[in-house]
Write a structure and sequence with these properties.
Layout (H helix, E strand, L loop, with lengths): L1 E11 L6 E8 H9 L16 H13 L12 E7 H7 L6 E5 L9
Antiparallel strand pairs: 1-2, 1-4, 2-3
């Protein structure tokens, strides 16, 4: 299977290790997103709460991406972890079109 993506962002490793995280978005998602321009803060969603316990539960959902608050991983984004030499060799930049090819390894039978 071969899919076409666009490089959405390139981030350094959160732990300072020598790799980068490449975020990819499909062309379909980008076309759909251009019809409804996002706000500066993603797609905000108000989460109401009546007590401190509810607030903490909702906050955990929002931070993990379940509430759509923009702090967790965005839906429709594929992320790859590349070592620095792989990243430099490919000389990727935001907006580049890339292809991701997946294939299943054939079992030799044991």
């Amino acid at each position: 299977m071969k899919k076409e993506f666009v490089v959405k962002s390139i981030d350094s490793a959160p732990d300072g290790a020598p790799y980068v995280v490449i975020s990819l978005s499909s062309l379909k998602d980008l076309k759909e997103g251009s019809q409804n321009p996002p706000s500066a803060f993603g797609s905000p969603k108000v989460m109401g709460f009546s007590n401190m316990n509810d607030m903490m539960k909702d906050l955990n959902k929002m931070m993990s991406g379940g509430g759509g608050g923009g702090f967790g991983m965005q839906s429709g984004v594929t992320q790859l972890k590349l070592e620095m030499h792989e990243y430099k060799e490919m000389s990727l930049s935001v907006g580049d079109k890339v292809f991701l090819e997946l294939s299943k390894a054939e079992a030799l039978g044991v």
